[in-house]
């Protein structure tokens, strides 16, 4: 058991060791012959570093230690995410190993209940995106991350962690939206996932986002040409608020193309409710006429 919070030197020492382990793993995993050999089945021989990582439960021990690091927790959390990113990129079959998946799930569950710095958020979204790609490629792994008997967000932790980021701008938001589309695609392939997502708060989140973006539209358009009658792509690009709204609508449309039928039924009701409220704003008629 730990005696008090580790010092900064202790944390730096562990972080350095993790960096060295990542470097050694990368060197070993670059051996294409070993990589091909491993891909033939889970029973293949691991590289020495990877074998030690798994047999000694290093990821479990690292997580157990990290939760006691106090103000250094995010630094250690970031290093853990880098390590998982490397392992998953090497082979998604590693997720079938409990010494990998169990501490990964605990790490994700911890992230769901915390506020993190931007650097950690970026790495988290990258990891979530990576996991979604893996689940689409190997549906057999879905049972590890979708747990119907779990409580709250932990039922489908990947999906729930993505929700706060889908309205973000920049690379973080785009990766989160790409990953969310993959989650929606999963929902169409698995009824339990589909029903869970349909009963989640994703529909209100998307509708609220659209409403918020709509409220940011300018009240007047500074058009100087007398024969102007509709918005062009160039006009949209010149209006950042409108471009964000159009991008959000495109995202919602993309979700509609791949989502579970029950989600489509619920989202249709919410979208019509949103449209109904928007008609209370006199700007809507003018904008609709212009866009039409």
UniProtKB/TrEMBL annotation:
InterPro entries tied to this protein: FHIP
Organism superkingdom: Eukaryota
Classification via PANTHER family: FHIP FAMILY PROTEIN CG3558 (PTHR21705:SF11), RAI16 PROTEIN-RELATED (PTHR21705)
Protein name: Uncharacterized protein
Organism: Lasius niger
């Amino acid at each position: 058991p730990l005696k008090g919070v580790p010092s900064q030197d202790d944390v730096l020492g562990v972080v350095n060791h993790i960096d060295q382990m990542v470097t050694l793993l990368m060197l070993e995993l670059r051996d294409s012959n070993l990589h091909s050999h491993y891909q033939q089945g889970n029973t293949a021989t691991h590289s020495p570093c990877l074998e030690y990582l798994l047999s000694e439960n290093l990821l479990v021990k690292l997580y157990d230690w990290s939760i006691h690091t106090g103000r250094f927790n995010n630094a250690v959390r970031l290093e853990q995410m880098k390590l998982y990113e490397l392992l998953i990129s090497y082979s998604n079959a590693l997720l079938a190993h409990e010494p990998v998946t169990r501490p990964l799930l605990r790490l994700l569950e911890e992230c769901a209940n915390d506020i993190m710095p931007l650097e950690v958020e970026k790495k988290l979204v990258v990891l979530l995106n990576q996991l979604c790609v893996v689940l689409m490629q190997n549906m057999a792994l879905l049972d590890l991350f979708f747990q119907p008997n779990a409580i709250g967000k932990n039922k489908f932790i990947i999906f729930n962690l993505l929700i706060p980021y889908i309205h973000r701008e920049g690379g973080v938001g785009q990766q989160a939206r790409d990953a969310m589309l993959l989650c929606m695609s999963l929902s169409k392939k698995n009824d339990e996932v589909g029903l869970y997502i349909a009963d989640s708060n994703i529909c209100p989140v998307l509708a609220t986002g659209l409403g918020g973006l709509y409220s940011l539209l300018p009240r007047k358009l500074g058009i100087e040409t007398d024969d102007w009658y509709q918005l062009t792509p160039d006009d949209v690009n010149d209006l950042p608020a409108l471009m964000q709204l159009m991008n959000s609508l495109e995202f919602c449309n993309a979700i509609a193309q791949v989502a579970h039928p029950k989600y489509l039924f619920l989202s249709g009701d919410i979208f019509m409710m949103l449209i109904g409220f928007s008609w209370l704003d006199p700007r809507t008629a003018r904008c609709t006429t212009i866009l039409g």
